[in-house]
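Subgroup meeting minutes
Present: P.N., E.W., G.H.
Scribe: E.W.

1. P.N. recapped why we're keeping a running log of single-chain structure predictions: easier to compare across weeks, and new members can see raw inputs and outputs side by side.
2. G.H. added today's entry (282 aa).
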Amino acid sequence: MLVGLLCAILTALLFGVAAVLQATGARDVPSISSHPWRDVVRAALTSKMLMAVLAMHIFGGFLHLLSAVLLPLYLAQAVMASSVVVTAFYAAHVLREHLDTRHRIAVFVTVAGLALLTISSGPAGGQRVHERFLWMLIIFLVMGTLAATFAVQSEGRAAAVTLAAIGGAAYAITPLAARGLGHPTWSIENVLAMFLIIVGSLVGFVFYSFSLQRVSTIAATAPLVLAETLVPAAIGLMFLHDKVRHGWWPGAVIGLAVALGAVIKLAGHSAEVVEELAEHER
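Output recorded in log:
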């Protein structure tokens, strides 16, 4: 369990820094709402910053998958959610997206909720997901992608938050798919699981980048983290036999609720520079 917890902490640090770098790279790319897809893709593929962030996500994704296998999913996802703290303070330093008192309090409340959740955690369940469950995840990914294509063409904070949440849901698929990996063979479960891990990560990366073009880094990261924490955590507890320490259910519920409530508060953060950029693109 200690190795899994270490992997989750390293993932949070890596993703927290990567979010700020991704915001920098994404804002140098033309907006998809006002430019053709081919121009956006060409600019993204030639962006050294976005390619570096993608490499960081690949390495961080490997650490994340290890933590998802070694820890209960709700714990692995909740620890990774602390990346929003790293993002908040790093963005304030690098991008001048400063936090007011309310948002600073929300950051520390997030940490407190995650600490309580960590203390309440029990062993990971041994339930491995099978083919039918993996096909359901593929359907979920397709539906989310279709919904995001409509949000891309819309304007305003609500559309940006929706894009970030869909990106988080796509990222959430990867730890669930990791529970489908078995022995290194070309079984249908292994093929579907690897497909979901790769495609889910790419879909999450793309729509999160679009969200970062429209709102502040912390406002985009908060709903992303909310979705990628809550979805696999709930599924792990309900269907994959993840455990909570005996007698610690109230602590786990309160810790998760407090942390996610603070993340929702952070979704209201704004930055004048980003909003001016989004207005200029329109």
